[in-house]
């Protein structure tokens, strides 16, 4: 039995707009509540809300979730240095569990017995939504009309027109784009050819190299317990900090990622990402950890970071394993406080300075100049003990 009252994750695009009459007329849903989340995508969300109502929604809600998105999701992933396949800061993937939480909360508030989304059966987002919703409230029915209706793009537009949803008036972009405060993901069109260089038109947050400043830009990022709190000694709230760093890094052409990645459903996909702030923050955070964490912790944490990134990408934000990993990561961040100086220039971000009251770097031990306090005489005994297993092994090959 289908749900009677449904909360729909609404973006204002063709698919989610068509979902509204489809849910009602094909699946017998009595009421549809459209929920649009403000994650810093820069759209006129009041216009999006009005479009939902014009498309047949019984109620349309816009929820500002920017602070929650950055602090509870983006910064948690930052503390884990979460980069999917070592490169992607997970901007889109991090948004999905938050939207799922908002859907569930809204369903509880309005007395809905189901939630819906406009994901197709080919991508990662369907998994992220379905699994996250099940983790938060397994009693709610999850409806995915676009995964089941089997309509082409043209047929979807025509179906919407039957119920008063106007067809897009401008020429459709060949690209599929998702955008939030943490970055943009771009796919489809010519990008489906992994040999083709991305045209400049796909980028919006980052300048091309030939339009970046000739002189480098330096930015100092202060962290407290692994969380960025200020730029150039100017304290900023999370949303403003990310926004400003997006501007600084983007103006210098930093944050472009072109990769072929492995989707959860088993497909290799060519993706273009723009994540100016994300790229710089992970780079800076890694540098601060290198200064403040013991070697054994840093080495062990690298494996945790890869697992963490896979959990986020694969829709397992609310899994017990991620909760357990958070406890480990929280402990490691107790002394990850200090300042990192980053040089932004011609598409590159380079750490050029670091300092912390918790620094494990001892100049008197590291120096080769006068004042060296390292006991060189201890080295011979250390090497003997350290190399003992190797020498014992070697004797078997050299009797």
TrEMBL record:
Coiled coil: none annotated. Its main location: cytoplasm. One of its GO terms (cellular component) is cytoplasm. Pathway: Amino-acid biosynthesis; L-arginine biosynthesis; L-arginine from L-ornithine and carbamoyl phosphate: step 2/3. GO terms for biological process: argininosuccinate metabolic process; L-arginine biosynthetic process; urea cycle. It comes from the Bacteria. GO terms for molecular function: argininosuccinate synthase activity; ATP binding. InterPro entries: Arginosuc_syn_C, Arginosuc_syn_N, Arginosuc_synth, Arginosuc_synth_CS, Arginosuc_synth_type_1_subfam, AS_cat/multimer_dom_body, Rossmann-like_a/b/a_fold. Residues 5-166 form the Arginosuccinate synthase-like N-terminal domain. Homotetramer. This is Argininosuccinate synthase. It comes from Gloeobacter kilaueensis (strain ATCC BAA-2537 / CCAP 1431/1 / ULC 316 / JS1). The lineage of its organism: Bacteria, Bacillati, Cyanobacteriota, Cyanophyceae, Gloeobacterales.
């Amino acid at each position: 039995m289908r749900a009677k009252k449904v909360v729909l994750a609404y973006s204002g695009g063709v698919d989610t707009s068509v979902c509204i009459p489809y849910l009602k007329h094909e699946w017998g849903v009595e009421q549809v509540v459209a929920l649009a989340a403000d994650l810093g995508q820069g759209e006129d969300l009041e216009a999006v809300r009005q479009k939902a109502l014009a498309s047949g929604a019984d109620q349309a809600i816009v929820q500002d979730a920017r602070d929650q998105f950055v602090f509870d999701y983006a910064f948690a992933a930052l503390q884990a240095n979460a980069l999917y396949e070592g490169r992607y800061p997970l901007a889109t993937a991090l948004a999905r569990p938050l939207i799922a939480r908002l859907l569930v909360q809204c369903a509880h508030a309005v007395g809905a017995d189901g939630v819906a989304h406009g994901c197709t059966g080919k991508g990662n987002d369907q998994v992220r939504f379905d699994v996250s919703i099940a983790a938060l409230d397994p009693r709610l029915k999850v409806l995915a009309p676009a995964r089941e209706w089997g309509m082409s793009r043209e047929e979807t537009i025509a179906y919407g027109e039957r119920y008063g949803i106007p067809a897009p008036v401008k020429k459709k972009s060949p690209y599929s784009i998702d955008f939030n405060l943490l970055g943009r993901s771009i796919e489809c069109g010519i990008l489906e050819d992994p040999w083709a260089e991305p045209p400049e038109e796909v980028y919006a947050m980052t300048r091309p190299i030939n339009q970046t400043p000739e002189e480098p830009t330096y930015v100092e990022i202060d962290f407290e317990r692994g969380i960025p709190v200020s730029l150039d000694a100017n304290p900023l709230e999370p949303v403003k900090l990310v926004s400003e760093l997006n501007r600084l890094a983007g103006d210098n052409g930093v944050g472009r990622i072109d990769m072929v990645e492995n989707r959860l459903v088993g497909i290799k996909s060519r993706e273009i990402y723009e994540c100016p702030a994300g790229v710089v923050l992970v780079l800076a955070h890694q540098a601060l950890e290198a200064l403040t964490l013991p070697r054994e912790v840093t080495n062990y944490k690298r494996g945790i970071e890869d697992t963490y990134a896979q959990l986020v990408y694969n829709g397992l934000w609310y899994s017990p394993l991620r909760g357990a990993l958070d406890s480990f990561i929280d402990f490691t961040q107790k002394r990850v406080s200090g300042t990192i100086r980053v040089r932004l220039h011609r598409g590159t971000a380079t750490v050029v300075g670091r300092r912390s009251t918790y620094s494990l770097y001892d100049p008197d031990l590291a120096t080769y100049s006068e004042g060296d306090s390292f006991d060189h005489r201890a080295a011979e005994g250390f090497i003997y003990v350290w190399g003992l297993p190797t020498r014992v092994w070697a004797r078997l090959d050299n009797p």
